[in-house]
Amino acid sequence: MLRVPLNQILVIIVLSLVVGFFVNIIRSDSIPLLAKEMSITKNLDEISGEPVAISLLQAKTLFDKGVVFVDARGEEYFADGHIQNSWNSGFFMELMFKLDSAQTKSGLVVLYCGEDECGSSEELADDLYNEGFSKLFVFKGGWQEWNEAGYPVE
Amino acid sequence: MSNEMKNMMVMICRIFLGFMFIYASLDKIANPEEFAKQIGYYKVLPFGIENILGIILPWTELIVGVCLIAGLLVDGAALLSIIMMLVFILAISQAMLRGIDITCGCFKVSADSDKLGLDTIIRDIIFFVMSMIVLNRQERKFEFLPKSD
After folding, report:
1. Rounded CA gap, B64 and B56, in Å?
2. Is the dihedral of CA B75, B79, B80, B84 positive or negative?
3. Is the confidence metric ipTM above 0.90 for this complex?
4. Cβ of A119 and B55 within 8 Å?
5. Assigned domain for A79 exists
6. In angstroms, what separates the C-alpha of A123 from chain B's closest C-alpha?
7. What total number of domains does chain A contain?
8. In B2-117, which ranges are continuous DSSP H helix?
9. A4 domain-assigned
10. Which residue segment(s) compose the domain that A61 sits in?
């Protein structure tokens, strides 16, 4: 018969809560209790810093300007179809090297994944930002919204 | 299997899981913002509450790990370990089914940590079984709170 030690679980959880919140209050890099969602930027020209989200129309504007698009989905999804001329993210170090060779770290990059509720493009944007890339856009509508709009794919 | 062998197996599971949880918690405690973001990439939690989980979960892992090794509240630690493994297995499975290609965030929060895959699920299933062995032990050896039999 399995034991169900609810009182012990309670002790461990309460201890975690107390220590976790206390440490978060006193540390210099404390975080807010609720995370902010990445908001869609209003002005594409005023971007320099943390990654920002963009709408479908803004993504199309950047696409028409020839900005590099990176598909953050797995290879099998990329092979099934992707935004025209976009790169598959592949291995992170490889992507970084490729981006660095093609343009500087302040070059514009658009990242996308399947649809609004996939986190791969946000993760990739944050990772690139941590490596010094400063003009990163996350197209949250992703492949699904782009494809449904009938924009160029391959 | 003799009782001694069973007790030995329980001790091995306790120590292995204990060190595993402690190791898994350290990078997350050092980088709470990155860990919270990592939870957010799974896209399962509403209202931005990934930050609350990012603040608490690493400490739960650390305390569970210490309890398993030190012989404190072992039943509670083992059951929490089982619950955490079930939650991790579900979170990873749903992400994989939805084609979300992200890193696991299981042990490290940096970009070079493991990608989600079948191996991460199998690993968590093994940890789940080990936690079950600890919870289902017949004898309490080297336990100090509550005391051994």
Report:
1. 12
2. positive
3. yes
4. no
5. yes
6. 7
7. 1
8. 3-30, 32-41, 50-70, 74-97
9. no
10. 44-148
